[in-house]
Amino acid sequence: MNTVYFPKVRELRTHKEDIEQKLHISIMIQGKKVTYHGEAVYEYTAELVLQAMAFGFSAKQALQLLEPDTTFKVIAMKHFTRRKDMEEVRGRVIGKEGKTKRTIENISDTELIISNNDIGILGRSIQVEAAIVALGNLIRGTKEANTYAFLERHNKDTKRKRSDLGLKDEEQKELQQFKEDTEDDTE
What we know:
Elements lengths: L1 E4 L4 H5 L1 H8 L1 E6 L2 E6 L1 H16 L3 H4 L7 E7 L9 H9 L4 H10 L1 E6 L2 E7 H16 L3 H20 L5 H18 L1
Antiparallel strand pairs: 1-3, 2-3, 4-6, 5-6
């Protein structure tokens, strides 16, 4: 039996049955204290989902953690700077009218929530790691344009890596020829 403390329990109360069904656990809410139990296999995922919800993500966003290769990380802005004025650092991450935050979310294909001096990041593992690096650079003082360029370069590299199997050109051609030959044989 594990416990998570929620600052706002309303979202959990509204979607409690759905979450219990999808996570295969039972949830008990006592004020801001949420206790859950189930099989050990499901408790780990439930821990991540409930922590994401406690941080401020909606139930729909937090349930994305059920998909493979999706993760939730919390980073402390204090780890990336020595500055005492954290309000200015938060303002740098959020940007004018939230533009910087929205742009980072769109380019990195992650979801961000800024709470006090912490940033919650939800998305695919590779994209979350890139967003952490980009946010760290931004907090340290890198220009926004350089941060965006880093994320775009990272996206381009990951797309290239997905399509490239690490084979040399000749091996790639042989593999393509083999695929074409096997398609011809099946017809």
